[in-house]
């Protein structure tokens, strides 16, 4: 029988470049991976610069110009909590995953809670990728339908199904170094997307004429939730950390990733809000006229982005399932587990049509929990500074308190919007 902690394991337990030992024990000499600093930066940028780059103009529209202050505060806070994750892992070489941090802090219940929160978050983010793909492809080709075994599937559902099958081979990869090349394409795609949006506004007749509102107080909860969703990659950070050849440079990886992504997000938010104002949709690409070259580049680039990010997001879930259900390495069963996981996200994506509300709910309930509250609580417990009265401990408790307020208000707002949409 395995220990209780191993039986409830629901997250990646080993670096992706290290073999899984049958006894599931940790060894100091097997912790370091072989991924270089730059490849880890690509993986980190790819994880952070997700579908939030499309929804952030909508977030700014929801909250108004002054909500940008909140955006930069969230960016700084989540960078700090990312460093807290590294500090927790540096304190104990046996910590090799996010759930390990929860176990070190609060025992088996902490492991279970962290595992559930992070895996649901990553699962819904991956599902959001498929919804995004379906929406944009349906916008480009509204009359396309596919037939599979006599069953005709049309509209966005057909595109979600096809794209999910295209993404499946990337999920079969289990090497972070190889995934870094896919990640590089995702990072490049993000910059191309921003450039094409800028071109559409400056040279294709859309212009930057919308003034926007200074503050929309009613939309602040939605704005904060979507801003938080932009920085929901914390469950992936331990995977990146353990895959690095030189883990002492991980703080520099985080700095590079957060600086680049924050500038990218802010640029996209400002450009989109100036272009479309309050009329900006949940995905800015849905506002673009499909007959312009720049618009087509933006939309097609949007389609490439999730292809490069999907595998990185579901990798911790895949390894969690394999650690739970596979006693030893079995390539056939591993492929089956990965395939079933992808198919399940396809089914959920087909059933959930509200992209902006799903992302808002994920940001408020799961991203705030996994990226803000849990890193602070775990570090307070593992480091022991919760026993001392100091600037850092006060700051951490303050972040936790604010995070709980955002979680409650943001989740309530998102659920209310989903309910109103359903009853229409």
Can you describe this structure?
The chain crosses the membrane at residues 65-85, 112-132, 152-171, 178-200, 220-241, 253-277, 297-321, 333-355, 361-382, 394-415. This is Amino acid transporter transmembrane domain-containing protein. It holds the Pfam family Aa_trans. Residues 34-414 form the Amino acid transporter transmembrane domain. The structure is a single chain. The protein has a single domain (28-423), classed as Amino acid/polyamine transporter I. Helices cover 71% and strands 2% of the residues. The chain contains 14 helices and two strands. A two-stranded antiparallel sheet has the order 1-2. Helix 8 (220-229) packs across helix 14 (391-423). The longest helix is centred in the first third of the chain and has 43 residues, at 98-140. The protein is globular, with a radius of gyration of 21 Å.
Features of this protein?
424 residues, globular, mainly alpha, transport
Task: Give a concise summary.
The chain has 424 residues and is mostly helical. The chain is 71% helix and 2% strand.
Q: What proportion of the residues form beta strands (DSSP E)?
A: under 5%
Q: For the largest beta sheet, what order do the strands appear in spatially?
A: 1-2
Provide the domain count.
1
The CATH homology group name: Amino acid/polyamine transporter I
Uncertain spans, ≥5 residues at pLDDT below 50? 1-30
CATH domain class name:
Mainly Alpha
Computed over alpha carbons, the radius of gyration is 21 Å
N-to-C SSE series? HHHHHEEHHHHHHHHH
CATH topology: Amino acid/polyamine transporter I
């Amino acid at each position: 029988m395995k220990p209780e902690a191993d039986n409830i394991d629901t997250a990646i337990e080993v670096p992706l470049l290290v073999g899984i030992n049958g006894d599931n024990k940790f060894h100091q000499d097997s912790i370091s991976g072989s991924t270089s600093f730059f490849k880890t930066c690509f993986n980190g940028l790819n994880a952070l610069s997700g579908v939030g780059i499309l929804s952030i103009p909508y977030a700014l529209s929801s909250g108004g110009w002054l909500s940008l202050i909140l955006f930069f505060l969230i960016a700084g806070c989540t960078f700090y909590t990312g460093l807290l994750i590294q500090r927790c892992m540096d304190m104990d070489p046996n910590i090799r995953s996010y759930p390990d941090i929860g176990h070190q802090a609060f025992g088996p219940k902490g492991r279970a809670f962290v595992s559930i929160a992070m895996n649901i978050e990553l699962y819904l983010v991956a599902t959001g990728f498929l919804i995004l793909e379906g929406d944009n492809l349906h916008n480009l080709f509204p009359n396309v339908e596919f037939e599979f075994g006599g069953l005709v599937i049309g509209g966005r559902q057909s595109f979600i199904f096809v794209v999910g099958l295209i993404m499946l081979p990337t999920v079969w990869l289990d090497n972070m170094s190889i995934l870094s090349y896919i990640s590089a394409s995702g990072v490049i795609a993000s910059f191309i997307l921003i450039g094409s949006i800028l071109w559409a506004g400056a040279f294709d007749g859309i212009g930057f004429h919308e003034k926007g509102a200074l503050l929309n107080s009613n939309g602040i909860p939605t704005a904060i939730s979507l801003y938080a969703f932009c920085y929901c990659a914390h469950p992936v950070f331990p995977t990146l950390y353990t895959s690095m050849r030189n883990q002492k440079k991980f703080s520099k990886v985080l700095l590079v990733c957060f600086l680049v992504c924050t500038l990218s997000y802010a640029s996209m938010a400002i450009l989109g809000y100036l272009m479309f104002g309050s009329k900006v949709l949940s995905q800015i690409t849905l506002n673009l006229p499909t007959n312009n070259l720049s618009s087509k580049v933006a939309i097609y680039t949007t389609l490439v982005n999730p292809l490069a990010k999907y595998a990185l997001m579901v990798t911790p879930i895949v390894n969690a399932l394999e650690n739970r259900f596979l006693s030893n390495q079995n390539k056939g069963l591993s492929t089956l587990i990965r395939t079933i996981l992808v198919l399940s996200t396809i089914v959920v994506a087909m059933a959930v049509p509200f992209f902006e509300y799903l992302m808002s709910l994920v940001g408020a309930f799961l991203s705030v929990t996994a990226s803000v509250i849990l890193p602070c609580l775990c570090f307070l417990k593992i480091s022991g500074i919760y026993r001392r009265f100091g600037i850092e401990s006060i700051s951490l408790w303050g972040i936790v308190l604010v995070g709980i307020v955002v979680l409650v208000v943001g989740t309530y707002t998102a659920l209310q919007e989903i309910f109103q949409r359903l009853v229409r």
